[in-house]
Design a protein that fits this description.
The chain is an alpha+beta fold. The chain has helices spanning 16-24, 61-78, 109-126, and strands at residues 9-11, 34-41, 46-47, 50-59, 83-94, 98-106, 129-135, 140-142. Strands 1, 2, 3, 4, 5, 6, 7 and 8 form an 8-stranded mixed β-sheet that branches. Helix 2 (61-78) runs antiparallel to helix 3. It is globular, with a radius of gyration of 16 Å. It starts with 8 loop residues before the first strand and ends with a strand. Heterotetramer of 2 MoaD subunits and 2 MoaE subunits. Also stable as homodimer. The enzyme changes between these two forms during catalysis. InterPro entries: MoaE_sf, Mopterin_biosynth_MoaE. It comes from Zobellia barbeyronii. Pathway: Cofactor biosynthesis; molybdopterin biosynthesis.
């Protein structure tokens, strides 16, 4: 029997409205003393004299969702968190748009800083999400993780 994990993927860019609504839901939780967010944004890097216009994200979705779940579980074991949300884009995200949204909450501020860095580093190292850089001239290449 296979386990179904929460789908953390959002089609296209993650909107500021979605981010604001996700954060606002936690304002009434009086046990929370601190929130911290990470917003990964597509950069307009210049690679071989060509400017990145967008990144097209693909993933092994089932495997990636399991990895996100494992990272979430490990983070809750390691840090005193009240809640955590992770969302990643799939499909095309233009330069300047948000492709990764991580939100953590805790009774104490030090926990959210440590936990957020731990989560983002684990995502970059372990989650099978791949980005193809699309340049202004419409050529493309697979992104090197940075």
């Amino acid at each position: 029997m296979s386990t179904t994990y929460k789908n953390v993927f959002k089609p296209g860019a993650i909107s500021s409205t979605f981010i604001a609504e996700s954060i606002a839901k936690h304002q009434s939780k009086t046990s929370i003393g601190a929130h911290n967010i990470f917003l990964g944004q597509v950069r307009a890097d210049v690679v071989d004299d060509k400017k990145v216009a967008a990144i097209e994200y693909t993933a092994y979705e089932d495997m990636a969702n399991k990895k996100f779940h494992d990272i979430r579980e490990a983070t809750f074991e390691k840090f005193n968190l009240t809640c955590m949300h992770i969302y990643h884009s799939l499909g095309e995200v233009k330069s300047g748009e948000i492709c990764l949204f991580v939100f953590v909450s805790s009774p104490r501020r030090k926990e959210v800083f440590k936990a957020l860095e731990y989560v983002v580093e684990a995502i970059k190292a372990d989650v099978p999400v791949f980005g193809k850089e699309i340049f202004e001239d419409e050529s493309s290449q697979w992104k090197v993780n940075s």
